[in-house]
Amino acid sequence: MLRLVLFCLTALLVWAPSMLLAGDWKVGMARVDITPTKKIWLGGYASRKKPAEGTTHPLWAKALVFEDKQGSRAAIVTTDLIGLTREISDAVGKRVAQKTGITREQILLNCSHTHSSPVVLGCASLAYDLSPVHQKEIEDYAKQLQDNLVKVIVEASQSLSDASLSYGEERATFAINRRGRINPDGPVDHTVPVLRVNDPTGKMRAVLFGYACHNTTIALFKYCGDYAGFAQVALEKKYPGTMALFMIGCGGDANPDPRGTLALAEQHGNSLAEAVIRAVDQPLEPIHGPLTVKMKRTDLPFVAPPTKAELLKQQGKGDVYSQRLTKYLLNQLDEQGAIATSYPFSVQVIQFGDDLTLIGLGGETVIDYSIRLHEEFSDRRIWVAGYCNEVFAYVPSERVLKEGGYEGGGAMKYFGFHGPFKPGVEDRVIQLVHSLVTP
Question: Which amino acid positions bind Zn(2+), per UniProt (predicted)?
């Protein structure tokens, strides 16, 4: 009997530390290479007139699936892509739900918005002058992309194991407000949010990090994750066996500075990686459950659309992109009988108990949204991400809308909208966020 007692005590001492470190979570992770097998057209810069010519480093889709003690789950998927459409994200969500039971509302898909990734079908489609051959290649890639996104979420959901989560923040200073090309006095957020995933022994399995800045350091003709890709490469080299995932913030009006060369993209990536390293090498705040996930849409109205007579008068006028928009809107009138008067904007909120609230905003949101949400939720720890689930247009704040310019409405023509949005767009977004955040 004494030997049995001693054996049990010894076993308890051996296992107790691991049990304590296991925390409140099970986390699964997976990755899949989404680099096109063909050299297809690159997205992001309308001025490009030829497809990709090579690869600097692979483009990835990476997934984390979280499960709390009650069995509630959420998936966060990061991608080295220019953007996704609502149609693609919803199709992926439907297929994942059938395979795993994880619903569409429980899946957050974020795009790094690298301008050195392939055109994604339906994302800013009026920006590109594509031949039928190039269009077919993009359609084929979209099918492969959906398959890969489903695959990475399913694989992550099948690899759940005990884990603990912790959170911290650091800073990187290469982002600059780009309103008027370079605006050093404009608002910008240099915060680097970091979520660390540890296994029961305390070893880091994954690190999710963010930054609010366009991935536009380079405009080359090779597939590349830009600074965000280089940051992930650097972190995975620093911590072998750890998966690094980048989630872009509200960087609609921020650019890397300086920019223009591959060396600068790597420099900014290393700078961001160093910020993450500083964060994970210091004590972080534990993140507990339970997990709550909500997703909802609200209509953001556009100004009154042009009439058919007005569009007919505009034919052949303006730059090539304005002419494409006129033709597109006339086709929309003929086929659907009306021009869209609003867009169903999405907000997704993932709450990790009272310890962390992740707010995912659709579209290319400007930094004012993150600044305001941090002010209005100053009593809680929040992480605001843009470019979530779909990149359908820029989403200006009220200030940017009044100022106009590219982010204020000038870029709408690339996305197929007459625009701009009506005043009140910012309040509609903020009110929806408040309705989804559990007190």
Answer: 113, 214
Three-class SS state of 182: coil
The residue behind tokens 């990536």 is 269
Distance CA(175)–CA(185), nearest Å, equals: 12
Banded pLDDT at 181 (limits 50, 70, 90): confident
pLDDT of residue 23: 66
Instruction: Classify each residue of 278-297 as buried b or exposed e, where b means 16 or more C-beta atoms within 10 Å of its C-beta.
Output: ebbeeebeebbbebbbebee
**Separation of CA 39 from chain center:** 24
Contact between 218 and 258 under an 8 Å Cβ cutoff? The reply is: no
How far apart, in Å, do the first and last CA atoms of the chain sit? 53
Do residues 215 and 113 make contact, with C-beta atoms less than 8 angstroms apart? Answer: yes
Q: List pLDDT tens digits, range 44-76.
A: 999 898 999 999 999 999 999 999 999 999 999
* Interacting residues of 235 by C-beta distance below 8 A, sequence separation 6+: 207, 209, 242, 244, 273, 276, 277
Place of tokens 């009997």: 1
113 assigned ligand-binding residue: yes
SS3 108: strand
With contact defined as beta carbons under 8 Å apart, do 345 and 335 qualify?
no
Distance CA 131, CA 248 (A): 31
d(CA 83, CA 113): 6
Determine contact, residues 341/370, Cβ cutoff 8 Å. Answer: no
